């Protein structure tokens, strides 16, 4: 019974059922080598979902992650074209991403604009900046050095570096959220902002910190994305921010803030990744993917709402439900 | 309160003119006039009735949805599925057309599909009590996903001649059907929000849903009607857009939901609910349309316009907060 109470366990179970269904049509899908491929393919979504989860924990939302990814990815590709070594490009991408996240954070913290408005604005601004610095030109594979493209693909201990980076982010985020003061502050700020203020937590600053982390992870993903697909242009990862939010929602992260886990966000991303990778295998047109993930989001939200509905009669709440 | 600080007169005791001058709509009007004047000097082609009329197509369809969206956001909810409703309604019209439906039936199918989608959102949010921002991200994928399942990478073309009038016809001299419809709807929504008890209920729910429920307002019912309205307006916009483009693709109106929300927020509607006005949204629509048109005449690419719109969006929200004496407003 306690297993059914645990959202992450339920989601893991749902993913296993999904894998089982795919296996009935195509047994090779659950081969370890193929599962590793699926994991690797989902790595960018996982990394971004962890960042988004931290932002959602603090009662905010970050719609600019995909645009941030595209901008830092483009800058990484341009730096690479100038002959800057990879040792500098990687930290630069993370720093640039964090700086873009800080723009969001400062607008939310110091100016007090609701996060959805801020990130709606910066989302279009970041994409526009890519156009300004490149004039709409693409950076193609032959314009990137081999070392730049090889890093995410390099195999270490049987897995590509991209997967290892995702694993590292998962472990770091789990530790940071569970074992640091800032990590607990994210939960406190989203769970009850007023109580957080009385315990001496600065709500705005904590939200800004969440945006910086989300931005830094988007910057890291920007390099990985461009290096892996070996192309950079204005519209890469277009609409990806919604997949990221979807992964969080399916992973049981509450949009009201204060509830969610790294494991949930990662499993939500894997759920979407499995669907995406399984459709071609079981002969369903990839055009079905959007409708399926949409249905998954709605079901997940409905399920989470049912689970978190308080037991017993709450007199005040019932008035609104009429 | 020391003697040195100037005496503060509460807003409600000042003259209507003083109040109006300090309002959001006045700021927007100033921006609108500035953009208009700059554009007139920037390009010789700007002050031409036919060009200006063409420019209205940049915002008429978005604005129709923005009116309903403004009311929904004032009530403290949001509908991010509007652009996908357009895609699905347009797909349904394409299917009806291939089945040999005439123009009146096509319009009915488009509007009907919009209403059905709106009803689905209404059931999820008002019926089941789910948070609208996430649910409508879900229905956004679902509705457009169905269009993709039906169409794949194909398109419906070959709409009947008479159907083209909705997006391409003119009612009077340079005034297109869409622009006239936009004006009529602006008036209708202005009356609905500012002159009816339904409008007052919308504000009440946005300010405090629990208090509204206790004062006898049927919160769920009002919210459901608002989702039906955004669905209906998306259906009407789908008829206009499909007619104007003369074709249906599953990617039709991609990203429009964000432009609609931008228009609403630019119009002074608080994203947190409880305040905003229809005249503000009308002005925001004109500003966005003029900016797009003016930049277009100067051969500035669309993406650079979006930078400008993004900065404008953040700036108009930030400036009043930075310069108000109370400091930044806290959520």
Automatic annotation (TrEMBL), chain A:
What is the originating organism of this protein?
Neotabrizicola shimadae
Report the Pfam families cross-referenced here. BPD_transp_2
Record flagged with keyword Membrane: yes
- What kind of membrane protein is this, topologically? Multi-pass membrane protein
Q: Which PANTHER family match?
A: ABC TRANSPORTER PERMEASE PROTEIN YPHD-RELATED-RELATED, RIBOSE IMPORT PERMEASE PROTEIN RBSC
Give me the Gene Ontology terms describing cellular component.
plasma membrane
Protein location: Cell membrane
Q: Keyword Membrane on this protein?
A: yes
Q: What is this protein called?
A: ABC transporter permease
Which GO terms of the molecular function aspect are on file?
transmembrane transporter activity
InterPro entries, per the entry: ABC_transp_permease (IPR001851)
Where is this protein chiefly located? membrane
- Keywords, A to Z? Cell membrane, Membrane, Transmembrane, Transmembrane helix
Transmembrane stretches, start-end = 43-71, 83-107, 113-133, 154-177, 208-230, 242-275, 287-306
TrEMBL record, chain B:
Please give the chief subcellular localization of this protein.
membrane
Q: Where are the transmembrane segments?
A: 26-47, 105-126, 133-151, 171-192, 226-246, 252-273, 303-323
Name where it's found: Cell membrane
Q: Which Pfam families match?
A: BPD_transp_2
Asked whether the UniProt record includes Transmembrane among its keywords, one would answer: yes
Q: What's in the GO CC field?
A: plasma membrane
State any single GO MF term.
transmembrane transporter activity
The membrane topology of this protein is: Multi-pass membrane protein
Per its UniProt record, what InterPro entries does this chain match? ABC_transp_permease (IPR001851)
Task: Show which residues constitute the signal peptide.
Answer: none
Keywords of the record: Cell inner membrane, Cell membrane, Membrane, Transmembrane, Transmembrane helix, Transport
Please give the subunit comment from the record.
The complex is composed of two ATP-binding proteins (LsrA), two transmembrane proteins (LsrC and LsrD) and a solute-binding protein (LsrB).
Its biological purpose is as follows:
Part of the ABC transporter complex LsrABCD involved in autoinducer 2 (AI-2) import. Probably responsible for the translocation of the substrate across the membrane.
Name of protein: Autoinducer 2 import system permease protein LsrD
Organism, scientific name: Neotabrizicola shimadae
């Amino acid at each position: 019974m306690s297993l059914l109470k645990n959202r992450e366990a339920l989601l893991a179970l749902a993913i296993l059922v999904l894998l089982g269904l795919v296996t009935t049509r195509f047994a090779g899908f659950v081969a370890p080598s193929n599962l590793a491929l699926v994991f690797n393919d989902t790595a960018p979504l996982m990394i971004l979902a962890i960042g988004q989860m931290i932002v959602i924990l603090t009662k905010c939302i970050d719609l600019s992650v995909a645009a941030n990814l595209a901008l830092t990815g483009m800058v990484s590709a341009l730096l690479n074209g100038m002959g800057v070594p990879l040792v500098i490009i990687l930290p630069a991408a993370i720093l640039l991403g964090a700086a873009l996240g800080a723009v969001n954070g400062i607008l939310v913290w110091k100016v007090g604009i609701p996060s959805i408005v801020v990130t709606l604005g910066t989302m279009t601004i970041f994409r526009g900046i890519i156009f300004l610095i490149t004039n709409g030109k693409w950076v193609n594979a032959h314009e990137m050095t081999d070392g730049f493209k090889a890093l995410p693909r390099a195999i270490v201990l049987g897995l590509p570096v991209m997967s290892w980076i995702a694993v590292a982010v998962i472990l770091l985020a789990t530790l940071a959220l569970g074992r640091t003061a800032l990590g607990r502050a994210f939960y406190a700020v989203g769970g009850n902002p007023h109580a957080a203020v009385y315990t001496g937590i600065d709500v705005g600053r904590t939200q800004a910190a969440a945006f910086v982390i989300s931005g830094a992870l988007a910057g890291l993903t920007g390099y990985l994305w461009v290096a892996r697909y070996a192309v950079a242009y204005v519209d890469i990862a277009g609409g990806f921010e919604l997949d990221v939010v979807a992964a969080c929602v399916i992973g049981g992260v509450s949009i009201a803030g204060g509830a969610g886990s790294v494991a949930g966000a990662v499993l939500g991303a894997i759920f979407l990744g499995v669907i995406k990778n399984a459709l071609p295998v079981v002969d369903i047109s990839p055009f079905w993917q959007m409708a399926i993930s949409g249905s998954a989001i709605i079901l997940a939200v409905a399920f989470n709402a049912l689970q978190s509905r308080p037991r017993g009669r709450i007199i005040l709440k019932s008035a609104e439900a009429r | 309160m020391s003697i040195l600080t100037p005496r503060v007169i509460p807003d409600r005791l000042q003259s209507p003119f003083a109040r109006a001058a300090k309002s959001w709509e006045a700021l927007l009007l100033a921006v609108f006039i500035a953009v208009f004047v700059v554009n007139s000097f920037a390009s010789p082609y700007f002050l031409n009735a036919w060009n200006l009329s063409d420019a209205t197509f940049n915002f008429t369809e978005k604005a129709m949805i923005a009116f309903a969206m403004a009311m929904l956001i004032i009530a403290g909810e949001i509908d991010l599925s509007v652009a996908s409703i357009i895609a699905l309604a347009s797909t349904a019209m394409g299917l009806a057309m291939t089945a040999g439906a005439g123009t009146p039936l096509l319009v009915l199918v488009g509007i009907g599909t919009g209403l059905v989608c709106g009803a689905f959102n209404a059931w999820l949010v008002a019926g089941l009590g789910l948070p609208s921002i996430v649910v409508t991200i879900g229905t956004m994928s679902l509705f457009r996903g169905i269009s993709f399942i039906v169409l794949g990478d194909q398109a419906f073309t070959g709409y009947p001649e008479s159907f083209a009038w909705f997006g391409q016809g003119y009612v009077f001299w340079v005034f297109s059907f869409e622009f006239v419809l936009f004006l009529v709807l602006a008036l209708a929504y202005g009356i609905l929000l500012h002159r009816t008890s339904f409008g007052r209920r919308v504000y009440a729910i946005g300010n405090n849903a629990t208090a509204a429920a206790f004062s006898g307002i049927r919160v769920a019912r009002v919210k459901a009607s608002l989702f039906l309205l955004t669905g209906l307006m998306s259906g009407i916009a789908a008829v206009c857009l499909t007619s104007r483009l003369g074709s249906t693709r599953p990617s039709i109106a991609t990203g429009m939901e964000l432009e609609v929300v931008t228009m609403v927020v630019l119009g002074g509607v608080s994203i947190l609910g409880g305040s905003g006005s229809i005249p503000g949204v009308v002005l925001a629509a004109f500003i966005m349309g003029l900016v797009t048109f003016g930049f277009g005449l100067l051969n500035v690419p669309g993406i650079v316009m979006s930078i400008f719109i993004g900065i404008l969006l953040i700036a108009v929200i930030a400036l009043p907060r930075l310069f108000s004496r109370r400091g930044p407003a806290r959520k």
